[in-house]
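Example record

The entry below shows one chain as it appears in the dataset: sequence first, then structure tokens.
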Amino acid sequence: MTRTGDEAGEGPEERGGVQAGPRRLCRMEDLPEGGTLTFSLDGGVRHTGFLVRKDGEVRAYLNACPHMPGSRLAWREHGFLAPDGGSLVCHGHGSRFDILTGVCLEGAALGRSLQALPLRVDPGGEILLLASVLPGLS
């Protein structure tokens, strides 16, 4: 299920067709250890991001392989992890990325990194996207 984050009760601003933050994505309990979760950046499916949780830490990235603009990482919704669960993978090109840093470890995107999206986990366990402007999206 793609989450839009609109359930936070605060209507997102619109800038260039992309929803700006801060806005609620989910709760920590909604994102299991070793899991990923897709969310919309524009209220639809054109621009998406994803959350990943590893060792209790959460990261957010743009759903785009850095070696080919416009190409998505996942071949199916929430399908960002390599089969062994140890890295993120571009299922179109085979590049593997470190889960916590987004740095490419091997493949066509070597030397590049995933675009991280700023987030915060509040004391109540809410995961919030903090971006007020999401560069390069329109």
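Notes for this example: Confidence is low (pLDDT under 50) at residues 1-17. The CA atoms of residues 33 and 88 lie 14 Å apart.
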